[in-house]
Amino acid sequence: MGDSAGGGFTLALAQQIRNDSLDLPRHLVLISPWVDVMGGDPSIQERDNWLTIDVLQKYGTAWAGEMDVSNPIISPLYGDMEGLPPTDLFTGTWEVFYTDVCNTYDKMKNAGVDARLHVAEKMGHVYPLWPGPEGRKAHREIAEIIKECGACGT
Question: Which element (helix H / strand E) includes 72?
């Protein structure tokens, strides 16, 4: 599980674990994951009062260093999704990552991953961590995912 950059790291790590033929986690929960360090949807920028695309791209470029920013270890949206564990993705329609998260979900579904997309209307970045009703609803959903995963024993 991870949120924001941690969500991107989580997905990149899962892809690398799969590539290395190691045991995958039972489930992934990605909360507003940063999956493309050069991404972000400019049409949503005016609604996102937390994240700024040009600043994100500056940090993304710094994070990549000498590596290509589209390398899946940096931007896991560009990685292979096949064989990943069941994944729940949470995003708000008012965060600049919204389109990238939806594209990640589509790519996962097309690769046969058991993925579920949780979208909160008019919510911003990492809304499941907010103390409002939408955040509390997402908390309950995440707790249920963890509970079900723990009970499955696989």
Answer: none
